Amino acid sequence: MCGIVAYIGRRPAVPILIGGLKRLEYRGYDSAGVAVAVTDGLLGVRRCRGRLANLEALLVKAPLAGNVGIGHTRWATHGRPSDENAHPHRVGGVCVVHNGIIENHIGLRARLRGTGREFTSETDTEIVAHLVDEALKQGATSLLEASRKALRQVEGAYAIVLISQDHPGELVAAKNASPMVLGIGEGETFIASDAPALLEHTRNVVFLDEGDIVHLTHAGYTITDLEGAKRERPSRILDWSAEQAEKGGFPHFMLKEIFEQPTAVTNTLRGRLLVPESDVTLDGQEIDTRSLSRLVIVACGTSYHAGLVGKFMIESAARLPVEVDLASEFRYRDPVVGPHDLVVAISQSGETADTLAALKEAKSRGARTLAISNVLDSAIPRAADFTLYTHAGIEIGVASTKCFTAQLAALMLLAIHLGRRTGTLSPGNAQELISQLLLIPQKMENTLKELGDLKELAERYKDVPGFLFMGRGTNYPIALEGALKLKEISYIHAEGYAAGEMKHGPIALIDDGIPVVVIAPKGHGYEKVLSNMSEVRAREGQVIAVATHGDKIISEQCQSVLWVPDAPSLLQPLLTVLPLQLLSYAVSLARGNDVDQPRNLAKSVTVE
Ligand code: AGP
């Protein structure tokens, strides 16, 4: 995720901007830049690919003196990491830094090109600078008025700060669905995407809300909306430590990321659902299904579990056979794959060695390839013919959470896209899936709120020798994922099974000392899971059920219930995985483990 810092006051801006950006380095970035209203009335811009040290070296060679400025660290989403794509973007006398995604960037770019405007980067952000410059040229009398006019045309998520050569003592900041915080100092004001960037200078902050536009001058700040109506926002004194601030007030990155899932899924869907057409665009890429006879999904770990759910989604919507393979197995087994196959490589990091090798193997045998990844321009998307980024924002906790649910959302998008092209998904059915998908982020939000911290449950089971997880259909992969998550961070042995398999062996493990997590939401296979649950109960098993709100039959039959809202079977995994993530987190915490950095694990596995 990108970082923003902006400053207006009496002190030199550059050290404050660089210092603030350094505080956001932990979030990851691939390029950085600053723009400063230099004292002779011009705007100076310095930006480059790579670490902040490169930018600092640039600023030593070509310093910028001034006390109003904007700074940015970029984590690429539209356009690869490069000097040209680094922020700030400048058009005429206007410079902008931006976090988020401009959804209607294709249409806006085409319109602006039609008026003779040229673009120097591949970013969606540059469009905003053009729109503000256009508004100023069309007679807007202030940077604030021009910014409002520009942003009324923009759809999507943004935290934006603008500076203009012709209005040197001003900054304009705007927020919509991307975080932004204002810091109030003595005769100086700060803007940042995240609180850690400000804490060194002030603890008096205002968290901005959706649609806020802030006008900052040396005299202070005012907050209005896009139409100019005044907005009052209370300030508060932040008592977070620097470390707490990095985690957004959460005790661990993993918990922060669990709670970021509604936003991560929204960002994965953003701009891709074509509601009136009952269709999905994969960012303009067209997968020709005429010569396609099969899909093969390759991935590792949690991404492999997402692939197993993807099989259900794609087979149901597109009626194409889907095989799911562990990348480390696929690459070494002389796979039968060729020109009529689409090989989908799923990797949060985009760098997993086995997944990359599997994708290359498939390519060398003539298959078409598609990468689903969270990291732009990483090795796997670079090697693939098509890419679908999840836009979940950087994931720091080693145990993957928000990237998993974002992968599920991306796979549902792929399934609808393919289904509409094979003709097996009618417009009506596509419309139904799209509307259900759009409800998911809110359902996730409610579920996370209602589940609470699961502390009591964790205390009860923190010393057991093992856990079993079971589910059917789309929830079988969730049983596997629940077991993996628990193993990773609690170090308790756990196994996931297809519920129907229990009686073929694993049932021998059941006694009153082994909790069994049964994923049993209403829908496809529900009755079957109920009878599997009874088999466990008959052997004194301790059942923790994941069930649909209000299901009395379940609540009467088990020790604990973790409730989730109703959803179609294909989308249930986006909800049923949430209690399992929280349970793993709570058990790990109760055992005193390092949740974010579990032993023996690495975030990105770049070796075989
Ligand atoms: C997830 O919690 C794990 N840390 C791990 O299984 C991970 O999913 C796997 O290594 C694959 O990583 P990738 O998605 O970056 O390719």
Short recap of the structure:
With 608 residues, the protein is of the alpha/beta class. 35% of the residues lie in helices and 24% in strands. It has 19 helices and 26 strands.
Walkthrough of the structure:
53% of the residues are buried. With 608 residues, the protein is α/β, with parallel strands linked by helices. Helix 8 (261-269) runs parallel beside helix 13 (402-422), helix 9 (301-318) runs parallel beside helix 13 and helix 9 (301-318) runs antiparallel to helix 16. The chain contains 19 helices and 26 strands. Helix 18 (552-555) links the parallel strand 25 (542-548) and strand 26. It is globular. Helix content is 35%, strand content 24%. An 8-stranded antiparallel beta sheet has the order 3-2-4-1-10-9-11-14, covered by helices on one side. Strands 5-6-7-8-12-13 form a 6-stranded antiparallel beta sheet. It starts with a strand and ends in an 18-residue tail after the last helix. The structure holds 2-deoxy-2-amino glucitol-6-phosphate.
